[in-house]
Amino acid sequence: MPELPEVETVKNRLIPYLRNKTIKEVIVYYNKHEELIKIKNQKINDIKRKGKFLIFCLDDFYMISHLRMEGKYYITESYDIKKHDLVKFVFDDFNLIYNDVRKFGVFYLIDKNTNPYSVEPLINVGDEPFDITKEELYQKLKTKKVKRRKMYDLF
User: Fold this and answer.
1) What is the DSSP letter of 13?
2) Rounded Cα distance, 86 and 67, in Å
3) Residue range 85-112: average pLDDT?
4) N- to C-terminal Cα distance for the chain?
5) Could you report the per-residue pLDDT of 1-16, keeping only the tens digit for each?
6) Of 18, 43, 61, 115, which residue is 20 to 30 A from 135 by alpha carbon distance?
7) Cβ contact 23:44 at 8 Å
């Protein structure tokens, strides 16, 4: 499963290709993601991250993506469908492919008039590692209930 630093890397790698580009077509190969056809002709204004979620800021929607176990994005100029390609986002001069062997990855479309951080799935995502102060971390750890184990319980 991609961890937070890997998701940050995915975001940073996608931004130069996708920022200010318009999605010309969305081709869905896996019906679980059929809702994504609504984002045809939407421009990607920015890509953000909250926890392990990628947030694509479009003209009329926020498209939130979680890669789960094995989801990945790749960019290609020519395209031959591969076995585990689930969605193809077509741009003028390249394609963005969402590939997921286990099909665990999820997408959420949220209307642009809604604060994406105030609804599922982002409402329950914790603070970003560098956005919390030492004092806040201390207070959270101080009130955390943890079952204490004796050393011999570990073996």
Assistant:
1) H
2) 12
3) 97
4) 28
5) 679 899 999 999 999 9
6) 115
7) yes
